[in-house]
């Protein structure tokens, strides 16, 4: 997989990137988002479906009580009747991980090549991080911080809007019902953990990776944010926008 990404980077570098590694990475990020757009659209559709089915799932839970086997069978029938494939919701995340580590492997190989790897203030082959005296770890640079922030925004937007956000009530407040121990709730919890997984991964590991990876992820996430807004609006980010508006009006 690393060789595939390496060949792609070198092809773009030598043809349409003015023999600049940073420009090549930006162009690859744009191209990848165009290619993977159907996956993002599919995940948004899946998340909306799961939100719409929550009342039905709750009814099934009440109907079958402690009979977990009957509840699981009824839940799968509900998914099947509504065209929901539980495995499909994980596919976009898997694709992102494959791209992430494929590109990481390619950039590590590029370290040994004599390429023009400077873009503005960054060297694409070196980490975007700063060593501060007295700290045992490197401080993330601008690209690493932007990669984490834009990934958080993108992932949050892919989640369904909180039912209380439009009324200005905080998510997780007294009006939000307690989650039941079913697949749909577990999926929602998994989505919530993904909100922080990629951003934190970049903040901790991005200081050791080539900055070209942070550039790719930042550009890719910015494009994805625009695509996501057209597909489903602000989504789960709406609650933060509401809170910001409330704070700015005070």
Characterization of the model:
With 250 residues, this protein is mainly alpha-helical. The chain has one domain (2-248). The protein is built from 8 helices and 4 strands. Strands 1-2 form a two-stranded antiparallel ribbon. The protein has a two-stranded antiparallel sheet with strand order 3-4. The chain is elongated, with a radius of gyration of 21 Å. Residues 164-181 have low confidence and may be disordered.
Question: What is the topology?
Answer:
Elements: H1 2-15, H2 21-64, H3 68-81, H4 91-110, E1 118-119, E2 122-123, E3 129-131, E4 138-140, H5 142-157, H6 183-205, H7 211-232, H8 238-248
Antiparallel strand pairs: 1-2, 3-4
Helix pairs in contact: 1-2, 1-4, 2-3, 2-7, 5-6, 5-7
Q: H/E series, N to C?
A: HHHHEEEEHHHH
Q: How much helix, percentage-wise, in residues?
A: 55-70%
The coarse silhouette is elongated
The computed structural class is mainly alpha
How many domains? The number is 1
Largest sheet: 2 strands, antiparallel
């Amino acid at each position: 997989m690393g060789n595939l990404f390496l060949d792609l980077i070198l092809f773009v570098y030598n043809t349409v990137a003015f023999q600049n590694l940073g420009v090549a990475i930006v162009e690859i990020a744009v191209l990848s988002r165009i290619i993977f757009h159907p996956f993002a659209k599919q995940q948004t559709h899946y998340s909306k479906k799961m939100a719409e089915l929550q009342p039905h799932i709750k009814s099934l839970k009440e109907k079958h009580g402690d009979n977990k086997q009957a509840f699981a069978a009824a839940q799968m029938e509900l998914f099947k009747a509504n065209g929901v494939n539980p495995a499909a919701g994980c596919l976009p995340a898997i694709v992102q991980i494959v791209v992430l580590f494929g590109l990481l492997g390619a950039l590590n190989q590029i370290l040994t090549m004599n390429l023009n790897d400077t873009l503005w203030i960054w060297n694409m082959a070196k980490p975007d991080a700063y060593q501060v005296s007295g700290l045992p770890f490197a401080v993330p640079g601008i690209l690493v911080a932007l990669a984490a922030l834009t990934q958080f925004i993108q992932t949050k937007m892919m989640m369904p809007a909180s039912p209380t956000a439009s009324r200005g009530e905080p998510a997780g407040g007294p009006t939000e019902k307690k989650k039941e121990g079913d697949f749909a709730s577990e999926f929602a919890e998994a989505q919530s953990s993904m909100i922080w997984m990629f951003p934190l991964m970049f903040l901790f590991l991005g200081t050791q990776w080539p900055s070209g990876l942070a550039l790719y992820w930042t550009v890719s996430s910015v494009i994805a944010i625009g695509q996501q807004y057209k597909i489903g609006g602000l989504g789960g980010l709406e609650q933060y926008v509401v809170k910001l508006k409330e704070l700015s009006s005070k």
